[in-house]
Write a structure and sequence with these properties.
Distance between the termini: 64 Å
Strand content: under 5%
Helix content: over 70%
Shape: elongated
Largest sheet: none
Number of helices: 8
């Protein structure tokens, strides 16, 4: 029957395993990002004397995220905060033409942009797997099996409130 809807099942553990695999993929990419951050901060420190608070916040969030190895809601929230801090940092960089022109910074920034694109794709895959899993644990008859196995809905990776807001381009030219 072509085009027939198939109710998701969880008896094989497939949706749960896909969620875990997808989160593991995100974890690998986050490790790449974590590795880039110290290099980025190191180069930026030489130019951004007045942005110590921003740099320290990124370092602090990186440390917290690295030590939070779980896949719970707190880990997702930490990673969202780190993404926001890096985004704010990149906007701040616009005020430092010498830093933007630095070859090392440009290389690190390009690597970070690539990692962020990979992370975005992995988050989309994770969200698809989580949606399938959540559907499976909510639909009958698989909900019965899910209940006995104590499966609970997983949280999607979502854009933070700050990420949803438009960038104020005027801020880029102040300083």
């Amino acid at each position: 029957m072509v085009g027939a809807l198939r109710a998701p099942t969880i008896n094989s553990g497939e949706p749960k395993n896909q969620v875990e695999q997808a989160f593991s993929s995100i974890d690998v990419i986050l490790k790449k990002r974590w590795d880039l951050i110290p290099n980025l901060i190191s180069v930026a420190k030489n130019y951004m004397k007045y942005e110590q608070e921003t740099l320290e916040k990124i370092v602090s969030l990186r440390s917290q995220a690295m030590s939070s190895r779980g896949e719970g809601n707190s880990r997702i929230e930490l990673e969202n905060q780190l993404s926001g801090a890096i985004g704010r940092f990149m906007v701040t960089v616009e005020s430092y033409p010498e830093l933007k022109a630095n070859a090392s910074f440009q290389q690190i920034q390009a690597s970070l942009n690539e990692v962020e694109e990979q992370l975005s794709a992995s988050r989309r895959f994770y969200n698809t797997a989580v949606t399938d899993f959540n559907n499976a644990i909510e639909m009958f008859p698989s909900s019965i099996v899910a209940s006995t196995m104590n499966y609970r809905p997983r949280r999607l990776f979502e854009a933070t409130e700050q990420a949803r807001q438009n960038v104020n381009v005027g801020d880029l030219f102040e300083r």
